[in-house]
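Record type: monomer structure entry
Structure origin: computed from sequence
Chain ID: A
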Amino acid sequence: MSQHRFESAELLIIDGQQLDGSQPALLANLPGILRGEGIFETFLVINGEPTRLLAQHEARLRHSAELMGMELGEQGLMADAHQVLAALPPEGRWRVRYTVLRGHERRLVRMWTAGPVSMPPDQVSLLWSRYRQDPRDPLCAAKTTSRAKYQVAHAEAIEAGCQEALLPTVDGDVSECTAANLLIWHDGALRTPGLDRGILAGVTRALLLEGCQKAGIPAFEQKISQKLLCEAEEVFISNAVIGVIPVDKIKGLQDGYPGRSGAMLPRLRAAYPAALPDPPPPIPRQENS
């Protein structure tokens, strides 16, 4: 995980046109720019092969669009994926983002950005954040470009010597990190906040819960109090780019988690890929305009 949230745009494609990412490319008066009216999905492409979970990312993108009142139509992440795959080099580890911004007169602007990404760290430290999630806010379930709260919380975590911030809810229980879901191992089971606690429905989180079920590892959603979090034997975060990473401490709340030496970490990392769906048919790599 990087020490900042600057996303590399070595590759930029807007509405099917590949452009120079170092040059101005969007109208300044777009509602998606001025008001943060946009949705996005991020995933890995490794050596030219995208994640097997594109369908799950597509489904979440469409749910975000519905919550934001944006009509994607037939054109979406999977329909447009050939654009970015044709432009990426055949080797390397790339963080790819598909963004849909609200334009004028109900038009949508569709944008691909991509940049190389390094391997994630073997463990992370979290900061117990002063910012809160409201489980009663429907937009907590949408992956939107309106991210001021998350950016500031993440910056404060970096300033405190951590890699991520963990946000409680307005009710005091645990929700999620600024760009990752939280999971804990406690009393013989993997536990994670439910979708009713103001969190994003993480693609990796869902796959991990499914993988645990197939592997016979108890795993379920529940409300996680600060007390339960402090009593956890192991703590993890997950997202589509980093996979599953252990936590060694939560600054401001609890030190002393085992991090990379946790006994459950290998079992969870084995359960996760075992639940991956079969590879989809290859996406045709059409040449860009």
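Annotation 1: Residues 124-274 form a domain with the D-amino Acid Aminotransferase; Chain A, domain 2 fold (CATH 3.20.10.10).
Annotation 2: The radius of gyration is 19 Å.
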